[in-house]
Amino acid sequence: MKEKIIEIRWHGRGGQGVVTCAELLAKAAIAEGKYAQSAPSFGPERRGAPVAAFLRISNKPIYLRSQITHPDIVVVLDPTILTLPDVTAGIKKNAIFIANTNKLLEDVKYILGVNVNLGVIDATKIALEIIRRPITNTTMIGSFIRATNIVKIESVKQEIMTRFPTNYETNIKAMIRGYDELEMETDANRTVIKEKKDGKKAMPKLPKWRELTIGLTTKAGSAQAYKTGSWRSLVPVTDATKCIKCGICWVYCPDSARYQTPDGTYETNFDYCKGCGICARECPTHCITMQEEKE
Ligand code: SF4
Ligand code: SF4
Prior knowledge:
By secondary structure, the protein is of the alpha/beta class. It has helices spanning about 20-30, 105-110, 125-130, 135-150, 155-165, 170-180, 220-225, 250, 280; strands at about 5-15, 35-40, 50-60, 75, 95-100, 115-120, 185, 235-240, 260, 265-270, 290. The protein is about 25% helix and about 20% strand. Helix 1 crosses helix 4. The structure holds iron/sulfur cluster (2 copies).
């Protein structure tokens, strides 16, 4: 690694282990004698909301304490947020971009619309196969190590064993699959995106601290306008033939996304369902199953 600070931004949804990725890699880098720093970035949202984490690694001390606005590397853990402008905001030209997606590399390149060295991996599929849950963090760490070679896989294994003493084997297995199955552009097969006139994705102008709002009251009905359906990576599927019309899913759904159909059974409003799985857990007849969201 050259004498510079490598800045890495991680994107995902609350509950997918975005912050853990940055922490594990920072600890592994420090164990190798490098300098590293990790920090989370949250809004006030719950599980499922888009979140980011920041990681800096260097061969020299790091004095910066800010968020990362011009990353050298971006890693996206959730396929449903690839189209959000935040993931490419401020990204350096020819940065490394690693995406969890089941789309083709060329298609992702087109969706992003920026010139990056792109790597793609179907980490959700791997996580569901190995961990049985769509928690993609350790799989994406494997892909990150393969694409960047900044830390050694052995160092991260040690950190995973310390962090997950009871289930480190599955997490290490997921990491190795992420390493092995990453599809990465090489110089020979790179697709160069033509700069679109409106395609420059500059960082939004941020307010100065004196301009920040102190406290906020939203208008009545704003929850209805704020559609949380795009946060989902799992989707509840109801077998109406087993529904006993008890309404328990409706009572427990934190987003009021369950509604009664004319025949009395319950279904989901996908504009608001964020895939938390509470309805499936509470349903007494187990007629709701959580399935992988199709992109
Ligand atoms: S998964 Fe179920 S409980 Fe969770 S938001 Fe969707 S409908 Fe509501
Ligand atoms: S909890 Fe299950 S059985 Fe009860 S209304 Fe909802 S889907 Fe039907």
